[in-house]
Amino acid sequence: MTHITSSQVLTELSHHIGRDNGIHVQDLVRRITCESKVNAPLERRVRQLVAELRMEGHHICAHPARGYFMAATAEELADTCEFLYERAMTSLTQISRMKQISLPDLRGQLHLKT
């Protein structure tokens, strides 16, 4: 199986700056591997590498409709951060509802005596 590195992802994304130049994960894998067939493990690998690159501070944006791209503006970065925040809050809200506890109680936030 083809191995994809973070530097390959970053290099390819350097050609996709701004939301109008986004690239979907399947096309990103194709560009990196030069293979016409894309499989799920390679897509997962790219998503994992994107998360790692973001943890290193790289401004990699994404949206399901546009794909991955490097932020060209502060607004694009802010939009991606808001998208990620909303997605995280949706997941946390689902967990709190399934456990039938409030969202603050989910992670044991400090309760002040009243």
Could you give a quick summary of the protein structure above?
The protein has 114 residues and is mainly alpha-helical. The chain has helices at residues 6-13, 25-33, 40-55, 74-99, 103-106, and strands at 60-63, 67-70.
Q: How would you describe this structure in keywords?
A:
single chain, 114 residues, mainly alpha, Arc Repressor Mutant, subunit A, 5 helices, 7% strand
Structure overview:
This protein has 114 residues and is mainly alpha-helical. The chain has one domain: Arc Repressor Mutant, subunit A (Orthogonal Bundle), CATH 1.10.10. The chain is built from five helices and two strands, in the order αααββαα. Strands 1-2 form a two-stranded antiparallel sheet. Helix 2 crosses helix 3.
SSE order and pairing:
Blueprint: H1 6-13, H2 25-33, H3 40-55, E1 60-63, E2 67-70, H4 74-99, H5 103-106
Antiparallel strand pairs: 1-2
Radius of gyration (Å):
18 Å
User: How many distinct helices?
Assistant: 5
* Overall form: elongated
**C-alpha end-to-end distance:** 60 Å
Largest sheet: 2 strands, antiparallel
Low-confidence stretches: none
